[in-house]
Amino acid sequence: SAKESAVSGHLTAAEAGVPTTIVVEPKDAFGNPMVGTKDYSSSFQYSATDLNGQAYAAKVSVEKEAGQTYKFTVTYPSAGSYYLALYVDEAIMEGFPTVINVAKPALREAITYGNKPVTRFEHSMESRPSNGDLYVFGGATHQGSYAGDTWKWKSTNADDDWKYRRTIKVTGKTTDYIVEFDLDTHGMIQDGKLKPDCSDVLFHSKEGSELQYFMAPSGVSGCGTTSTTIYVSLTSAQDEFYMYYGNHKKSSTPSTSMFEYFEDFEGDTLPETFTLETDTCATAGDISGFTTSSDVSVTGSKSLKVDAENTIGGSIKTVTSNLTKFRLKYYFFDTLCEGIHFLSPDFEACTALGGSKVESSAGSAIGVYSSSNPSKYAYSSPWKAGASSRKFGFNEFYLVDDDTNLKMYVDGQLTAETAATDLDKIFIRGTTAAGSSKGSVGYYDTIIATSYDPAVSVQMGGEDAVSYSPDAGWESVGLSSPPPKRQAHASVVYGDSMYIFGGERSAYFYSDLWKYDFAADAWSFIPVKNMSSSLGRYDHSAVVHEDCMYIYGGRSPDPQGDFWKYDFKLQTWNVMPTSEGMGPRFGHVAVVSGDKMYIYGGYLHDSEKLTTELWSFDFKSSKWTLVGPRRTNFGESYVMDPSDAISFPSVLPPERHSGVGVAFGSHIVVVGGAGGADMGTELGDAYVFDAEKKAWTALILPSDNEAGLQRYDSAGASFGTDKIALFGGHGKGEFHNNLYNYHVDL
Description:
The chain is an all-beta fold.
């Protein structure tokens, strides 16, 4: 059956392109986890369909984790609502099928710390096919100068990064401090944004250094609840930090060393810091009643067993640093038997005063005191019944002292409030209740104590879609003999090298060709065997098909309508046929899909307007075709075949220039650019054209308010099978040097 917890097997949402996880655990007919060495990995099956029962190409994998726990990783390539069913030996698992609502993919900003390229526009960017690394060259900077530098973005596996980030702000803090806040991890897991064990949370300072954190391990504030408690250690200067999450492959390591006191009893014996407390009000205690045990636990595999049933029990304590304002949290396993079991931050055992007189034990404590009330948790002193009923199993106890009052909580419920005290010890007592012949067994685990400042408050910011990996980042490369500085050039990848052609600098129009060898990290000038004075240009397009590079249009400075082919092997240029219907243009995009080049948009010289035209050039037949939009299917050769035209009714992207275009098989993606009546309005959208269906589809609309797309003169490249990267550009009065990636919903 699906693993029994508040989180696993209850995934209800996901984001297209983002892997999500479901944890399952085989159990027997009585609900007990299966034990042994059998590997069930090959016994699992799955099915994914849309709500009409049609098969859906979700990517599903399963891997065995610790014990008999198995992790399913599910990636949905497109938005919609889908059924997911998991089976073991062809029998459907408990909790399935379930409906998963998959949201549209988000544009993600790639987060990096350290050096990065300066803001720029009219630059180029390419992706190295072998590893997905991105390379940026040249452009114009925000300072009005030309650039000739080369930068490499060291890529990582696109599914090996953190996908979400929140900014957390802290006020009222004046010293080093451990902040505490609650998080709805239950909802995050349901939405497919957090692993079921919550291990993929990661905290960083604004400067990028990893911060120590700890998550409450269980109970009402543990992973998978609506109010999961998280502690993060900050210096006095840190008042803002980041929380990353959503990485199905990585886990971060919580820290316990940051606390003033922490004990989870994972040793083989009682920690040496604990000593038996002498108490003249009771029979001398027995240290053998206090042992570490693997019977039950909330963290690790052990807890402190206090056995007052088979021994006389007693009291133990360990001295801590003195805290006048404190937070104390611990977990107690209640067997619901009679007896006395409590923990205190300040309890003093009774002492002899002489003769038959003693000073009564006193202090602030909460726990089981069945002679006071057998069904409620009691507190002292004197002992009174609190508001919380006893419950079998582990209960979470939380004491908060602000130097005015001490508030005691059990499983999130305020149980009692007493006068303030100081924390100077951890005092644990387990013994027989008055009138009983023997006591009972209780267990303690994960005791946490830290200072408290009521003036400190934490504000959780909204969620941002990001792509973050500590292994990714920018690096300056190509430092030896780079090309002259320039902007508005074009770049392509051929073999394991990037080539740039053309560009402009100070009204000079380049016609040179340069090669950057990815492996050698070296630039070299490429001499050609023939040249033409009309080759110099900028704002043109360049694509590669087989062993040739194809250049179309641009300006120098007048718009051009010529078409050229460069043969990499022969190192020669040749003029290619053009179509009278196209006319001179610049600022368009060009991509290759199969044996055709597609050219979209740009500024038309003849009409002095922007266009939304899509043209194709067949490399085999050397034939140009106006795919659309068309006014007619008669007259000119480039509109004679209706089967080549855009299928209507069809959405059409707005006219634009200076956008980004990439191809994924038969899908052509156009992103961003400028348009509108003034030809300078940032469009902030993305469209995909299916070359087989001859139809456009909107991926992102301006109403989606993706600020990362509201720019033009940026550069883009495809990487992987379905992702596009965007870098730089300008828009909304600003210049940019941030990098984005986007999962294209095909």
